[in-house]
Amino acid sequence: MTGKKVKFIGAAQGWGTGQSGTQHGPAAFSEFLGEKGATGIKFEEILSPETEAPEGPKQHQAALPYVTKLNRQLCEATFQVIRNREFPVVFGGDHSIAVGTWSGIIPAFRLQKHFGLIWIDAHLDANTPETAAEGKWGGHLHGQSLAALLGHGEEELVGLLPEELKKALPIKLDPQHVFIIGARSCDPGETRLLEKLGVRIYHIDEVNQRGFESCFKESLSEIRKNTKGYGLSIDLDAFDPEDAPAVGTPEENGIRAEKVIECMHHVNGDPRLVGLEVVEYCPQNDSPDRQTAALALSLINAIVR
Question: For residues 252 and 49, which has the higher predicted lDDT (pLDDT)?
Fold first, then answer.
């Protein structure tokens, strides 16, 4: 990797999704690591809301305080990891935790407008409260996290920052440095927003036609030319359900896991890569041999080991 100590943080968030189970992801993955005897990977803390997410759909306004609170905890945690000159790996939990992950990392480097993010996901996660009703997943906060990082959506999430940096710019990401790979379930409102902002989206048809590696390398090339640091946000539902059955919101026709893992040598050892998050592990849906957990472990090892 970069020679830095890797700090593993679990974010047991389930309030951001309409499918219960992702809140158990970090604990189940930690148990899997122990069973496999995985050395060098150990959660030093697992953050969670005070109240566990109930079964069934979580209404937007009911979920917002819990999502915000955990994201604030996570924001402070990743901020401190960077201050300690360590490399954060955040494991979720639903994708609403991205607000906390990157709201701590980016300001810690003072990288607003100079930070790149590669978002590997079946979804765009760029709805706002105004467009939520138009989409399949937009009514849940895990479908709004990227929009918040780009400065659109709930004020509590858009303005989330570490306590000591309250005067920093609330917009964490410049849209020209954001690249989404693997999208195949896109709502009308979020598509309009991202196209207006100029975010580069590699829809699954383009990924299948060109190959994942081509799209990934192109994103990296642009980021390395135009930013001072970057991160990876990987939603396990980006992968085909045959490879990753245990996700909160599975979508057919996904990226094959082998192709993605093979490409991670392009970022392993790159000092400009400053953070990683892996989200949406839903352990109750995993196969008996923990196929999805094993995929997540292979992915993390390919990037940080």
Answer: 252
Q: In what order do the strands lie in the sheet with 200-203?
A: 43-47, 6-11, 87-92, 273-279, 229-235, 115-120, 178-183, 200-203
Backbone angles phi, psi at 230, to 5 degrees: -155, 165
In the chain, DSSP assigns E strands to: 6-11, 43-47, 87-92, 115-120, 178-183, 200-203, 229-235, 273-279
Cβ density class 200-215: b for 16+ within 10 Å, e for less: bbbbbeebeeeebeeb
Inter-CA distances, 185 with 53, 151, 237, Å: 25, 22, 11
pLDDT digits (tens, 9 = 90+) for 291-305: 999 999 999 999 998
What b/e sequence results for 171-182 when a residue is b if at least 16 CB atoms lie within 10 Å of its CB, and e otherwise? bbbbbebbbbbb
The CATH class that applies to domain 6-304 reads alpha beta
**Nearest Cα to Cα of residue 303 among 149, 98, 131, 88:** 88
- Asked if 189 and 133 touch (Cβ cutoff 8 Å), the reply is no
**Angle, vertex CA 18, rays to CA 16 and CA 20, nearest 5:** 90
Domain locations in the chain?
6-304
Query: Are the CB atoms for 121 and 254 separated by under 8 Å?
Result: no
Contact 251, 122 (CB under 8 A): yes
The closest of 202, 112, 107 to 150, measured between CA atoms, is 112
**127 contact partners, CB below 8 Å, separation of at least 6:** 134, 135, 137, 138, 139, 143, 144, 147, 153, 187, 189, 190
State percent of the chain over pLDDT 90: 77
Taking residues 123-128, what's their average pLDDT?
95
pLDDT of residue 58: 56
